[in-house]
Amino acid sequence: MALKKQQIITEALELLNKSGLEGVTLRKLASRLNVQAPALYWHFKNKHALVNEMAEAILQMEFHDLKEPENEEPWQDWLLNIFNHLRKAMLAYTDGGRVVAGAHLSLTMANLSETAMKSLVNAGVELHQSRLIVLTATRFTFGHVIEEQTRITEQEMQELHMESFNQEYPTLTAGIEEYFSAGKTVDDLFNDGLQMIIG
Description:
Elements: H1 5-19, H2 26-32, H3 47-63, H4 75-91, H5 96-102, H6 107-122, H7 127-148, H8 154-159, H9 162-168, H10 170-181, H11 186-198
Helix pairs in contact: 1-3, 3-4, 3-5, 3-6, 4-5, 4-7, 4-11, 5-7, 6-7, 7-11
């Protein structure tokens, strides 16, 4: 039975969750599908093309039916919700942030940006400002998720002397402790940063 493109993408996403982005190779993918690697080239000329399609699949989970703000919904609330959905989509997969941020010419991301900018312009925000808000929020979300998904290794933990670090960077340490001592979570950290961009 001939391989279908969607079948390959689904298997690639499963491999992504198991092995991370570095572990997604055409050779491993072919092995999981019980085919020879050249069979995959009918659908994807290289790994980069495959990753682009994986990014689209990840994004479509949350943005298959993206709509502009309804009625009198404040654009700030709507935009905050949109970028929470973007974060949710990327966090659903191991290295999802790297996959989506590394994709080029993503039609789903283009539609997200178009819809967001149009919504802001329709709400009275200048085009120049709309683009900067959406672009900055997008890049903030990408970076935030990539950092969330970058795990510190056991060796790095052993090499980090917290007492010395705290003494060397007292203001940084105090800021972190002050923020989380108030009961804030990593979700709050994302939204508080995003709200500073949205205004």
